[in-house]
């Protein structure tokens, strides 16, 4: 694989803190949007969004009532207005409670917020005696929010990933960070394990093969027929029939499917069916194969045999990345391990990337499943130490 592939995401604007504060303060004057801003300050974004929507509904109904004369329509609108007002009050109480927590004041303030919202808002906003004890959205004492990874220099080969931030819309007025500061370089010929790609995506997508966890293969076709049909769809139109046959024969040989090439797909074992799914993606000669839990639903013996085939594919100079939730039974077949973890903000971060032996030393754990338990959140049955290792890994990379 001679070409290099890169993935980049813009990290956003570099406006000064002062301009951001003035902008945020100005938003408090915008009707309905200010309710959302209040929820954001309280660390109650969904509740603030609900308040904004219900406040808008109530305002629209009141305005429409000035022009509607039909008493039945007015009654219908009145019912909707009452329902929206009840929802608004319920969510407002949650937001006010969140503000009390952020400002670390007595609970009695809640009554003033409920019955005379402008008064506590003005007092807290202009008096130096009331300051937030922590910043909502970054969580208390959350050092990991300020940790940034070190961008990786393009090595000229393999896969260079510099993903600064990946966001998706999350309802009205809000975006959710899915991934942040993912930086690494994967060399050709590496078999990489991934635990549970953007400006140049158009160039990159044809170099990737993706094998999903669940296949959509027709059970009433033979293995050979399945591969030939897929080769017709995936290979360039200038490929001759003999070219397609040669590519299919190569895939049959590499994945050990030649003995069952005339068997019906429905007659294959679980491991054979997995290998067929991978062989189909292999036909297009991708530079990188990504497999989503290829060993799910198969026993340990089949899993090891499957990853032996993946080892052969990696040895041809391709990058093979496999996502697995049962890492220990096959981990010694891998060159490298990628550990992704959710930080305190529930954003996916890079907690480790390196060889299997270095991973064990880094986490001071012998088994990969112990590593997973260490970084998982308490509600997921883990120890909740993700932030600790995200910071540790970022610091180690910065000092290399």
Task: Summarize the SSE layout with pairings.
Elements: E1 4-8, H1 17-27, H2 33-41, H3 45-65, H4 71-103, H5 109-115, H6 118-126, E2 158-169, E3 175-186, E4 191-194, H7 201-204, E5 208-211, H8 223-234, H9 241-254, H10 270-282, E6 288-292, H11 300-314, E7 319-323, E8 336-342, E9 348-355, H12 356-363, H13 368-375, H14 386-398
Parallel strand pairs: 1-2, 4-7, 4-8, 5-6, 6-7
Antiparallel strand pairs: 2-3, 8-9
Helix pairs in contact: 2-3, 3-4, 4-5, 8-9, 10-11
Q: How many strands in all?
A: 9
Order of helices and strands: EHHHHHHEEEHEHHHEHEEEHHH
CATH overall fold name of the largest domain? Rossmann fold
* Sequence stretches where pLDDT stays below 50 over 5 or more residues: 1-24, 137-141
Shape annotation: elongated
Rg measurement, Å: 28 Å
Distinct helical segment count: 14
* The CATH top-level class label of the largest domain: Alpha Beta
Distance between the termini: 27 Å
CATH level-4 homologous superfamily of the largest domain: P-loop containing nucleotide triphosphate hydrolases
Helix content percent band: 40-55%
Major beta sheet summary: 6 strands, mixed
Domain tally: 2
Overall average residue pLDDT: 79
Task: Assign the structural class, choosing from mainly alpha, mainly beta, alpha/beta, alpha+beta, or little secondary structure.
Answer: alpha/beta
Strand content: 15-25%
Reported CATH architecture of the largest domain: 3-Layer(aba) Sandwich
Give, in spatial order, the strands making up the sheet with the most strands. Answer: 5-6-7-4-8-9
